[in-house]
Amino acid sequence: MSDYAKPLPTLTDENRPFWDACRAGRLCLQRCDNCAHIRYPISPVCPRCLASGFEWAQVSGRGSVFSYIVFHRAYHPGFRDELPYNVALVQLDEGPRMYSNIVGTPNDQVRIGDAVEVVFDRATDEVTIPKFRLRAAD
After folding, report:
1. Which of 108, 114, 121 is nearest to 64 (CA)?
2. Of 42, 56, 76, 132, which sits most exposed with the smallest number of CB within 10 A?
3. Residues near 72 by Cβ (< 8 Å), separated by ≥ 6?
4. In angstroms, rounded to a whole number, what is the distance separating the alpha carbons of residues 5 and 123?
5. How would you class 100 by CB atoms within 10 Å of its CB: exposed for 0-12, middle for 13-18, buried for 19 or more?
6. d(Cα 17, Cα 40) in Å, to the nearest integer?
7. Close Cβ partners of 95 (under 8 Å, ≥ 6 residues apart)
8. Is the four-CA dihedral 10, 16, 21, 23 of positive or negative sign?
9. Does the pLDDT of residue 136 top 90, yes or no?
10. pLDDT value of position 35
11. How far, in Å, CA of 138 to CA of 118, rounded?
12. Which bin fits 54, alpha (ψ -120 to 50), beta or left (φ > 0)?
């Protein structure tokens, strides 16, 4: 897997539990010990109550497309072979929004409001990236 050409996250003590969970096929986010707010992106304090205590909690990985755009130009050479590709802002059922890609569906069939669920793309031995696919609405 050393031929992965796209940018990768820098693993740190702060974000490693997130990436370890992704590698195990689970989407885990921080849940505040004080107010139970689920937060993303990763932060040392809760944006709702400013408490610093938290636990990593598995979330459903379900949500909806809040917004998206289709790129027709590769702003990084690692994406050249995937043109055109989408970048979506997914509203997770638990509240946070996450940037990712909608996979398994032609770009012209993705719609705002579409129901999605997380899937995992193993990029390297250490990094597995959460992406989303369309799912049937409940």
Report:
1. 114
2. 76
3. 83, 84
4. 9
5. buried
6. 13
7. 37, 38
8. positive
9. no
10. 98
11. 16
12. beta
End-to-end C-alpha distance for the chain, whole angstroms: 37
CB 17 within 8 A of CB 125: no
CA angle 89, 136, 68 (to 5 degrees): 20
| C-alpha dihedral sign at 112, 118, 119, 124 | positive
Prediction pTM value: 0.94
Q: Which tokens sit at 25?
A: 């096929």
Is the omega angle on the peptide bond into residue 84 within 30 degrees of 0, that is, cis? yes
Tokens of 46: 């809760």
Give tens-digit pLDDT for 83-132.
Answer: 999 999 999 999 999 999 999 999 999 999 999 999 999 999 999 999 99
What digits encode the pLDDT tens for the residues 21-63? 999 999 999 999 999 999 999 999 999 999 999 999 999 999 9
Distance, in Å, from the CA atom of 8 to the CA atom of 128, rounded to the nearest integer, reads 10
Residue 109, token pair as written in the block: 């069939």
The pair of three-digit structure tokens given for residue 120, joined into one six-digit string: 């995992």
